[in-house]
From TrEMBL:
Record's protein name: Esterase
Lineage: Bacteria, Bacillati, Actinomycetota, Actinomycetes, Mycobacteriales
Annotated SUPFAM superfamilies: alpha/beta-Hydrolases
Keywords carried by this UniProt record: Signal
Superkingdom in the source lineage: Bacteria
């Protein structure tokens, strides 16, 4: 394998190198929350009337998610699960209605374009139990894999989506969770996209029972999730490092191996544009695996801890350089939706 360059539910109703400002994670999170709550006019618009807030009971916890039906309903459509990053809630349970990812991504638009249902699940205490052992989700013992499986099943029940044609997208903590769900629910997840979040090292010994396509995107200027891997900023009680994640290249290699991808890989570069937010991208892709699954790793030169294509206000762009010459939501849908394979075809 050629190694990529570091490059029971109920309804409730390379160009010039960009150097980011040195990052204080608390400052970044405060800035991000403030921008998301008060600057929605600069982001993607959506209609709440076109969606419902649903709930399921998982291990005694009421879990919520927003479900958006397709513009043109028909049976057999795929479901897109969109997972937000870590949200500061002071340990309080989330009761639904978090529109973060609807504002920051174009998945509503892409779902209409490609034909899909979209679900925006809420992490129980604002963070997913992604397997690293450092989030409030991990510490609370919630079963997020069971929750997300229930979301998939409810969508199939209400909208006739194919459970084994689920596509998962996530950023940061949501990206780590996307890796975990793809590993532990590969009979459901046909493809996933992870932005600014690589494979948690604690999950390395797991093996998916089915091949899963993967589009992995990381920025070279991401100080929170370094492109070559590293540890969480949340240390143990004695100051020990915890929550190690693999780098972009190693994550892609492991998924390519699990999928049985061919040894021939292709590399293509997207040059930077003339604008300050048009970043160069090095794109690596492995040969086809079982069921035609694919694995791609994109190194975005100069990008910080952010979502490509988001209309980011200047306050956040100064902290986290964000490319506008491509849209991660659109790229994931183009990558995954036209050639989703059944669980039977992807079975190992």
């Amino acid at each position: 394998m050629t190694r990529p360059a570091s490059t029971a539910p109920r309804r409730r109703r390379p160009s010039a190198v960009r150097t980011p400002i040195p990052l204080d994670p608390l400052r970044f999170r405060s800035c991000l929350d403030t921008v998301q709550e008060h600057c929605a006019g600069n982001l993607y618009k959506f209609e709440r009337e076109n969606s419902t807030i649903e709930n399921v009971l998982i291990d005694g916890h009421e879990r919520t998610f927003t479900l958006r039906p397709p513009a043109t309903p028909r049976p057999g459509l795929p479901l897109i699960l969109v997972l937000h990053g870590n949200r500061a809630t002071d340990g309080r349970a989330v009761r639904g209605g978090d529109d973060t990812m609807r504002r920051w991504t174009s998945f509503d638009t892409q779902a209409d374009r490609f034909g899909a249902v979209v679900a925006y699940p809420d992490a129980f205490t604002g963070s997913w139990a992604d397997g690293r052992g450092v989030t409030t989700g991990d510490e609370s013992g919630v079963d997020d894999v069971a929750f997300l499986r229930a979301v998939i099943d409810l969508s199939a029940e209400q909208h006739g989506t194919r459970p084994d044609h689920t596509v998962v997208a996530g950023i940061s903590n949501g990206a780590f969770m996307a890796h975990r769900l793809a590993l532990e629910a590969s009979d459901r997840v046909a493809a996933f996209g992870a932005v600014a979040g690589a494979l948690p090292a604690a999950l390395s010994d797991l093996r998916p029972t089915h091949s899963v396509s993967a589009l992995l995107i990381n920025g070279t200027a991401d100080a929170m999730v370094p492109i070559d891997g590293g540890y969480s900023r949340r240390r143990g009680p004695d100051g020990e490092l915890r929550g190690r994640t693999h780098g972009l290249a190693e994550s892609a290699r492991r998924w390519a191996d699990w999928n049985g991808c061919g040894t021939v890989a292709t590399v293509a570069d997207l040059p930077a544009g003339a604008g300050p937010d048009e970043f160069a991208v090095s794109r690596w892709e492995a040969g086809a695996g079982a069921g035609g699954t694919r694995v791609a790793a994109w190194t975005v030169h100069g990008m910080g801890h952010t979502w490509p294509g988001a209309s980011v206000p200047a306050a956040l762009a100064a902290l986290q350089p964000t490319p506008r010459n491509f849209d991660a939501a659109a790229e994931l849908c183009r990558f995954a939706l036209p050639q989703l394979a059944s669980a039977d075809d992807r079975r190992h």
